[in-house]
Fold this sequence. Notes:
The chain is 16% helix and 30% strand. The strands form 3 sheets. Strands 2-1-4-3 form a 4-stranded mixed sheet, covered by helices on one side. A 3-stranded antiparallel sheet has the order 5-8-9. It starts with a strand and ends with a strand. It is of the alpha+beta class.
Amino acid sequence: MLESLVLNAAGIPVSIVSWQRAISLYFAEKAIILSEYENGLIHSPSMEMKAPAVVQCIQTHYMPRKFVRVLPFSRKNVFLRDKGECCYCNKQVTLANFTFDHVVPKCMGGRSEWANVVVSCMRCNSKKGGKTPERAGMKLIRKPFAPRLDKAAPANLVSRTVSKIPHESWEDYIYWNIILDG
C-alpha cells in the first residue's frame, strides 16, 4: 500500500497517511504535492495522476506533541542496533531466530532496556543462562547502548521509518539519522 508523508506548513514531518487521504487534502486545497510515486498511477474516468509520496499542508502549523532523541526500545530496533550479530560470538542471526539476552539477568534484577539487552544466538543465550557474562565465562563483543537520533524527531514517525523509508523522496524531509556509536 502506498503511503504519503505529510509535512506541516513549516516543512516538519507530522504524519503518514494513505495516498487516498493525501489526494483528498490536495483536492480540498489544504495541501500541495511535493513528490510523487513514479509507478503509482491512479486512474479515474475523468483523470489520471501519480500517487503523492510527500504532501505539505498549506495552512496547518500542527506540531507533534512528542519528540524523541532516542530510538524507541523494541525487539526490531535492538536487532538493528546490533546489526543482526550475536554480541557474544559475532554469528549472524535473523530477525526471526535471535534471542534477547539480558546482560544482567532478569532473575538478578536486570531490566529490559537498551543498556541491558543485546542480540544473542540461541546457543550463546543457552550457554549463558541466568548468569552474568563474567560468571558464564563469556565476553561481550559490544557493550549495549541506547541509539540516539542526531535531531529530535516526531515520536509517531520514528519507529515507522527507522528501518526503511518507504520512498526515496522522503529522505529530503525526514531529517533525523540514527547515531550508532556507543
